[in-house]
Amino acid sequence: MRARDIDSNGVWNAGRYQVPLLGCDLPLPEEVGAEDESERVLFMTWAADFISDCPNCDLPLLGWTIMIHTKSAQMMPTHCCDRIHWYSTEGNEILSEYE
Ligand SMILES: [Zn+2]
Fold first, then answer.
1. Long-range contact set of residues 91-96: C-beta below 8 Å, sequence gap at least 24
2. How far does the centroid of ligand 1 lie from the alpha carbon of residue 79, in Å?
3. Mind listing the pLDDT tens digit for each residue in 40-59?
4. 20/28 Cα distance (integer angstroms)
5. I want to staple 65 with a disulfide (CB 3.0 to 4.6 A). Which of 25, 45, 47, 81 is the partner?
6. Alpha-carbon torsion 51, 56, 59, 61, what sign?
7. How far is the CA of 84 from the centre of ligand 1 (A)?
8. Residue 85 Cα, ligand 1 centroid: separation in angstroms?
9. 51: exposed, middle or buried (C-beta count within 10 Å: 0-12, 13-18, 19+)?
């Protein structure tokens, strides 16, 4: 799953398939420290409510960048540099970034 394949509605454009992530089980990176390997996507918000610049390339976030929330983590796909950023629900620090 690449960041640029996830649109502002939280739909993952997986080639021939369009997969709405809301309600799906999302695999979490180990760094999140969640009990389960995956957690359900509970809701989505605008990432700009939390953060103004991309933590990777420092460009201002595109206004429609989304933050995807599960019980233990948040995932933010940034299109500027095609990265997926993970945060823990506690502390809001960046745990890992995936290209
Ligand atoms: Zn970026």
1. 92/50, 94/55, 95/29, 95/31, 95/32, 96/29, 96/31
2. 7
3. 999 999 998 888 999 999 99
4. 17
5. 47
6. negative
7. 9
8. 10
9. middle
